[in-house]
Design goal:
4 domains, alpha+beta, Porin
């Protein structure tokens, strides 16, 4: 019965300790808190070892309640309560209550823990029932008190972060009464088990730039390191980042399915900003909450740190990567599209189809900006590109296209952004060009270098990049002629192109893949449209200047060479191609017809067919292309044109036949016109059909 009483008392003490410990606050925000309190209950069997009085005592029962708080290096202050129920030979029992303070050591070995403790203090003892002599008179001394000391050790195994069990022994010395040895079961409640022991260290957040909000969707804005400080493996480890002022919900990143105790892993931090961040006209700081979530023994735990995040205004950017400017090239902005479409309508109606369509569009768009009164302006209140590009810590101010329209000007980066956005809006690819202290634009001509040399014998006027010819345009010369802007842009590139790392070209499509356009709508800014008649007049003048500056010198040289040649057919054909490329199709047709009147010359047949095709005379063009195929059944230009003319005529079976043959003899060329490979009974994409009709391959013997 006495044993049951002792066990009940021990169990009650354990339940009380657990209940109290569950109400203690978890220290999630302080994973390195030194508090590691544990409360150990050690019920067991006690053996008296006092030699002189041992016959007086029987085997005893007792329990200790020890509170311990390990510090550094395993040193552990401790305090304890002890209770022993000691049966006597005289059929009586005494209770001994001891209290002491002291210390010890704690050694952690994963899920095992060794602990040794020594305490000193005092005790109080008393008979559990009043003792009387033979006459029934109670003895005077029924209780007593004296000094107390104890020492013990045990080894425990963690069942979970809160609870461990083990075996151990204790030595008690109740001075003047008895001393004993106890074997016990140790049950320990670890208050530290309530604390989140996963650590989030090295938290670094880069300043946020609203213009890069799309970039942040799949590129980290910061980093940290997660360490599992728990004694047990953790699972489903995730990190949440929430900037409440600019995000609807937290952005979650999966870190690991499982992390072992002591394991450490780096983690990238991501955000998903709302579009409203683009309304910021002044920068500031916002609290960023970084939370680690994980499962421990099936229960979720969280560790949260809050770090201030620097958020810049919407026009801010640093030039650590020139491609970042692509985020401001909002080619899908409705006002940009509206303006660009208006210009494109004039260009497509006025320009000869034989002249490179991209060059004509670049010319028309440049003239439209000049007509609108835009100019190159440096804001004295913002850093110039020449300064900001040399110091990546300077925050520059870049304008969105609508803003440049509103302000009627900007510096080199603002005008380059606007010009690129307008051209990209109508399907003309662009690139940023950078030279020391300057950024401007290159326009893709949509042709390879060999074709560009036929159009522009002066190779300094175009850049051969990645198999495509690009025309450099110095946009800051808006207001002057396009031809001057083109020549100045080309000269700047040639000045630095030969110097390693001095000049660079960044195609917009590749830059957008990393820094997508921000998509700022610019509510309230309506862009005025150019006057069509004035634009048409400017554009015609530019076309005339193009012909005079580029074509006429070549014609003079070609005519002189023809006059000196004994067999001038090849040169005459080249002259006809020059006429055609600059839109003088009647002169070109006359040259090709004169050649064919004298001899059957394959390039002249194909080139005359091209003229008829551009004029919309499809039946005549088809007859000439078939004539060319009879002369040379594997001629790539003839095969290509047969495929696309049959497409225009709706004869899709013939398209497949000719295109398959083209893939065999000229796979690279077939890839450039790959839209023909998917031709079926339905109409092909309008943009591809337009490409097929405007890009002509002129046949020469070079």
């Amino acid at each position: 019965m006495k044993q049951v009483r002792v066990a009940s008392v021990s169990l009650l003490l354990l339940v009380l300790v657990v209940a109290v410990s569950q109400r203690l606050p978890a220290q999630g925000d302080e994973p390195d808190s030194p508090s590691a309190l544990s409360i150990r209950i050690t019920p067991g069997v006690e053996f008296p070892v006092q030699g002189d009085v041992r016959p007086l005592y029987r085997i005893a029962y007792g329990t200790d309640l020890i509170a311990r708080m390990p510090l550094r290096w395993g040193l552990t202050p401790a305090a304890g309560l002890s209770y022993t129920l000691m049966p006597l030979r005289a059929d009586a029992t005494i209770s001994v209550l001891g209290v002491g303070v002291g210390g010890g050591v704690t050694v952690d070995m994963g899920r095992l823990q060794f602990a040794a403790t020594a305490l000193g203090g005092g005790y109080y003892s008393f008979f559990n029932a009043q003792q009387r002599d033979a006459d029934g008179v109670p003895y005077e001394n029924q209780s007593g008190a004296a000094g107390y000391a104890s020492a013990g050790a045990d080894v425990s195994f963690f069942l979970n972060p809160l609870l461990s069990v083990g075996l151990g022994g204790l030595y008690h010395n109740y001075l003047g009464l008895f001393h004993s040895a106890r074997a016990h079961i140790a049950t320990t409640v670890h208050i530290a088990g309530l604390q989140q022991q996963v650590r989030l260290r090295g938290l670094e957040l880069e300043p946020a730039f609203p213009s890069l909000l799309q970039h942040y969707a799949d590129h980290a804005i910061g980093s940290a390191r997660i360490t599992n400080g728990e004694r047990f493996p953790i699972t489903d480890v995730r990190v949440d980042v929430l900037v409440r002022d600019y995000m609807r919900t937290a952005r979650t990143t999966a870190v690991a399915a499982r992390m072992e105790p002591g394991e450490s892993r780096p983690v990238d931090l991501y955000v998903l900003f709302r579009d409203t961040i683009l309304n910021l006209t002044e920068g500031g700081r916002a609290p960023a909450e970084v939370t680690v979530r994980y499962l421990l023994n099936g229960r979720e735990r969280r560790v949260t740190l809050t770090e201030p995040l620097r958020v810049h205004h919407r026009n801010a950017m640093i030039w650590d990567d020139d491609r970042k400017a692509a985020a401001f090239v909002t080619a899908r902005d409705t006002e940009v599209i509206r303006f660009a479409s208006e210009v494109a309508a004039v260009v497509r109606r006025e320009g000869p189809a034989a002249i490179n369509p991209n060059l004509r569009m670049a010319m028309g768009m440049f003239n439209a900006l000049s007509q609108m009164g835009l100019s190159y302006v440096i804001d004295p209140n913002t850093p110039a590109y020449v300064d900001a590009s040399e110091n990546i810590h300077i925050v520059d101010h870049l304008q969105f296209p609508r803003e440049t329209f509103r302000y009627r000007g900007g510096d080199c980066d603002d005008l380059s952004i606007l010009y690129s956005a307008l051209l990209e809006a109508v399907g003309v690819h662009t690139a940023f060009l950078t030279v020391p202290g300057h950024i401007y634009v290159a326009v893709s001509l949509g042709i390879n270098a060999q074709e560009a040399r036929q159009l522009l014998p002066d190779e300094r006027l175009f850049i051969d990049f990645d198999g495509t010819a690009w025309a450099p345009v110095e946009v800051t010369l808006v207001g002057e002629s396009f031809h001057r802007a083109w020549n100045v842009g080309a000269a700047q590139w040639q000045e630095y192109a030969a110097t390693p790392d001095a000049a660079a070209i960044y195609p917009m499509s590749a830059s957008w893949a990393i820094y997508p356009a921000a998509g700022w709508a610019g509510e309230g800014i309506v862009v005025d449209l150019p006057d069509r008649d004035e634009l048409r007049s400017r554009y015609r003048d530019e076309l005339h200047e193009l012909v005079q500056r580029q074509l006429m010198p070549q014609i003079s040289q070609m005519e002189a060479a023809i006059a000196r040649s004994r067999d001038p057919v090849r040169l005459e054909n080249r002259l006809g191609v020059l006429y055609a490329q600059y839109g003088l199709v009647e002169d070109a047709a006359r040259v090709f017809q004169d050649i064919l009147a004298r001899r059957e010359y394959l390039p002249a047949v194909i080139n005359l067919a091209n003229i008829r095709y551009l004029d919309g005379l499809l039946e005549e063009a088809l007859e000439l292309y078939e004539r060319a195929a009879q002369i040379d059944p594997e001629n790539p230009t003839a095969l290509l044109n047969l495929a696309r003319i049959h497409q225009d005529l709706g004869q899709h079976a013939r398209v497949r036949v000719h295109y398959a043959k083209l893939q065999e003899v000229a796979p690279d060329l077939s890839a450039e016109f790959s839209y023909l490979s998917s031709v079926d009974e339905s109409t092909s994409r309008a943009s591809d059909a337009q490409l097929g009709r405007t890009r002509m391959l002129w046949e020469t013997e070079e």
